[in-house]
Design a protein that fits this description.
The protein has 316 residues and is mostly helical. It contains 14 helices and two strands; from the N terminus they run H-H-E-E-H-H-H-H-H-H-H-H-H-H-H-H. It is flat, with a radius of gyration of 28 Å.
Length: 316
């Protein structure tokens, strides 16, 4: 005869082990060993990352030549905001970022998708696409500066002459200089993005393409309804990384035009460089670090807002 279970008996609830807050228990559980292993990393990270950041924030409130310092409060920030070149630098940086998004962001995605459809020679195409990344950036800029030679014997002007277009003053024109810089920057950076997108395409389940093909979808419908939705998390991350990179563009304006012609390519980082090293002997490091801090705060807020807005889209 089956016995009736005792309904009045207390239910046994498993007791979770609480994390011991006792220092002795923490040491016995290996906490001290973990801390000892982490100390070299913490030390290196503090010396080479957090300490320079803290020093830069302090310098933004000082008038300093890196030897002697004088506390000036918010004077550096006021001087930066009153600089008439600040608005020009912000507009030029925004223009560069916009052109880079329009011209440079879709190209790596399109090339990665096309290369993923290639049956043979995919490794060769990947190597050729990544080749510009291997070239040192300074060498690449100086090489393209030769290509942009405004004389009729220039490489690009020679090619334009074959189709009846007169020689163009690429880097000497206020309207053509910034697009010329963006074209070179896109060429130099596209290879890395292509490799990342190719890796992201490997995680797309082949069954989705088979199902789309059964439904009669062509290549473009499969890309639009299968490939891009599956890659949207990577695309969103690459988008904000490109925005952050273009907002800190320095090498191309510095080597190509030096900010000219007539400040048409003066960007925020180039303005920071001019504050620190070009304005006067010793440089105005206080204004340079003040503008750097302002740029860092803006980019941090932009990243936070961007990830808050795209978190649901990238995971849904």
């Amino acid at each position: 005869m089956a016995t009736q279970p005792d309904v009045d008996a207390p239910r046994q609830v498993p007791v979770r082990e609480r994390r011991a807050s006792n220092p002795v228990t923490w040491v016995r559980s290996g906490g001290l060993t973990k801390l000892l292993f982490a100390l070299p990393l913490i030390f290196v990270f503090t010396i080479f990352s957090w300490l320079p950041i803290a020093r830069s924030v302090i310098m933004s409130f000082q008038k300093t030549n890196l030897i002697t310092s004088q506390w000036v409060g918010l004077d550096n920030f006021v001087a930066v905001l009153r600089d008439p070149l600040l608005g020009t630098a912000i507009a030029n940086t925004g223009y560069f970022a916009l052109l880079a998004l329009v011209m440079g962001f879709p190209i790596p995605i399109i090339m990665a998708v096309l290369m993923s459809e290639v049956r043979r020679g995919k490794g060769l195409y990947s190597a050729l696409a990544y080749l510009p990344v291997v070239i040192p950036p300074v060498v690449a800029v100086l090489l393209w500066k030769v290509f942009y030679d405004a004389s009729p014997q220039g490489v690009f002007n020679t090619l334009l002459g074959y189709v009846g277009i007169p020689p163009q003053p690429f880097l000497q024109s206020q309207t053509q200089a910034m697009p010329a810089l963006v074209i070179e920057a896109t060429w130099a950076a596209a290879g890395g993005s292509i490799i990342i997108y190719l890796a992201a395409l490997l995680i797309v389940p082949p069954e989705l393409y088979d199902a789309a093909e059964v439904d009669g979808a062509g290549i473009w419908r499969k890309i639009w309804h299968v490939t891009l939705p599956q890659m949207r998390g990577v695309i969103f991350v690459m988008l904000i990384l490109q925005v952050l990179a273009t907002a800190q563009v320095f090498l191309e304006p510095y080597l190509f035009t030096g900010g000219g012609p007539v400040h048409a390519t003066t960007t925020i980082l180039l303005l920071i460089y001019n504050y620190a090293f070009k304005n006067s002997l010793g440089g105005n490091y206080g204004m340079a670090t003040a503008l750097s801090v302002m740029l860092a705060i803006f980019l941090a807020l932009l990243s936070w807002v961007y990830f808050r807005l795209t978190n649901r889209w990238s995971t849904s």
